[in-house]
Each structure stands twice: as C-alpha cells, then as structure tokens.
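In response to reviewer comment 3 from the previous cycle, which asked for concrete evidence that the modeling workflow produces usable outputs, we include below a single protein chain processed end to end. The sequence was submitted unchanged, and the resulting structure tokens are shown without manual editing.
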Amino acid sequence: MSRASERTKTVVAALLGLVVLAGAGALLVAWLGLYNVAASSGHWPIVERFLRFGMENSVKARASGEPAPSLDDDDLIRLGAGHFHAGCAFCHGAPGTPISPVAAGMMPSPPDLKQRVGHWRDQDLFRIVKHGIKYAGMPAFPVLGRDDEVWAVVAFLRRLPVLDEAGYRALAAGEVEEEPQSGQEIATGEASEEGAIGACARCHGAQTGPKSRLVPNLHGQPREMLAEALKSYASRERQSGVMQTMAAGLTEQSINRLAGYYAGLPPVAQRPLATEPDAARMERGRKLAEEGEVSGEIPACLSCHAPGRSPLYPRLAGQSARYLAGQLHVWKSGLNDRTALGAIMAPIARRLSADQIADVAAFLASQPAADEARR
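The workflow returned the following structure tokens.
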C-alpha cells in the first residue's frame, strides 16, 4: 500500500473520529440539559446565526420554481388582508397595532413583516405561509390544498410594506368600524354577537357587498344554506383556511344569528366589470345554466340553484364570475367533496372544461340576484 493511500485512510479515520466525538458531545449536552431552552434567555449568537442560516436555505431549497400569479390583483390582496387580520396580525402586528407582548416573548419572536418580506422571493413567501416553520411558532396554513388562498396572503404581504394605518384598515376591515368593548366583554373575554357579525363583514360586507370579487355575496342567501356552510367550515369538512379560521370559534347560537342576519339583508349588486363578456360566451353559459348538457352528463345549474329551490343550495345569480369560477375549480380539483353538497358538486365540476366554467360563471354573474327572503 502506498504512502498516499495510508495518509488518506488516516485523514478519513480522523474525520470519522471527530464526527463521532461531536455527536457524543451533543448527546452529552442534551442528556445533562446543559443548553438553556428557556425563551427568556434567547439563543447564543452562534446558535441563532446557524439556525437562521439553515432555515433560510431550507425554505429557498424547497420553494416552488413555478411562477407566481399576478400579485397586484386588488381582489386577491383584499382576500389576503382579511385572513392576515384574523390569523396573522396577533403575532406579527399590523400598521397601527404593535406585536402582542405575548408573541414578542416567543423565541424566536415573530418578525415585523413590513421589514422582512422584502428579504424573500414570492415563492419563498408562499412556502412559508403554506408550510410554516418548525420550532418557530409559525404554523402551516390550515388547509394545504388551497393554494389560491395562500397566494392571496402572499399578495397582501407584498402590499404590506407601503401601508399606513388607514390603508391597512381599508383593506383588512372594509366598512367595519370597531366598536368599543363593554367592561364585561373586556373583563370576561367574551365577544358580542355584533362582533361576530363585524368579523364576517370585513370580507362579506354589510351595508354594501364584498369588496373582493373572490368573496361570495351572502346578502339574501337562504338561511339554512348559510348555517350549514358555517358548520361545515367549523367542523373542517369544508376546506378553506380563511373560513375555518373564522368559523372555528363560533357557537351554534352565533352561527344561527349570523345566518339569519345575512339571509335577511336585501341583495346588493356587484361592482360592474371593466369589460363585458362577449355574447357568444354568455349564450353558451345560459345553455349550461338553464339546460345543462346531456352528452356531458352536466345538469342545469338552475335546476338546483334557482330561487324557490331547496334552501340548502346557494343562489348563484349575481355572484361574481371570479368567485363562481374559483369555486368550480375547487370542486374540480377534488376539494370540498366531504359534505353532502360536495358529494354532488365535485363529480359535476370534474366534467366541466375550463371554458365551460368561464362561460357559466359569466352568465350567472350577469343575472340579477333575487331577494329570497321577501319571496
């Protein structure tokens, strides 16, 4: 055996010995509890730098290479703002609202996102919002299959650095004005029924309709359908990270009062589109909605969703085309098929082509919403 080979073997053996020694040392430190894990003491600077280095490279290595959707989309930004206000602002703070002292005591403490989002690519932010970060208190998105909702949060995060308090409130709270809590509510932590309605109105509106075309218009919808939908979100049978977050803490009494409130509101017209769909698309959509397509085993939408039908079915006329198309694509992808309505809708949506979805959504959006409560 040559001297070079012997020298190589010696170096390899020495390196293996060092690895074993380092592993034994780490095990000894863990066994004796020598490293202080208290959040109040923080990490050693070298440990903190190492953990951050590993976290950032882990995110970037696993972030999708697919291009992001348009993040300048106002509808997408408004939807993301609503979820951020409900699910993220407590830890990360918001313009005009500092980070909670409880969250600031976490280790690592949640960052001020206005200062940090510029550090990441769009795909990196998507990865963090969707999957969270281990050992950092950053949870995964409640529903991993709803990439559309994750991108909405990313779109809002891109807008966040330029928002002041008024701009943030306009996006996240809409028409809702926060009412001062009573002494009892502050002392007991109880939310009023009006507070629950206000939480919904941030996205769905109250005196006016929703500001985002990705959000359904609940005004005048059947009470039974609204209550059943909220219960399905609260039980996690219906998949939406945004709605599960909002519905999880609602009592049955709150659900019934919310459903009654929105069912009793008169329908509101949606905002006009910049350009109207062409006549051929509208006619194709009309046939699908009113007649269906026998050859494709597609029933007429209005056989179930027209006014006067079962109160468990939503009324589709007057909803925005973006919302209707988005929901059909959710059904088509296999999500939301665990409820009774989902078991009916998912197979139908899978038979629809992308063009058919766009056609029927455009037609239904053009129809005036009926006031079912008064009917």
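The radius of gyration is 26 Å. We consider this sufficient to address the reviewer's concern, and the full set will be provided in the supplementary archive.
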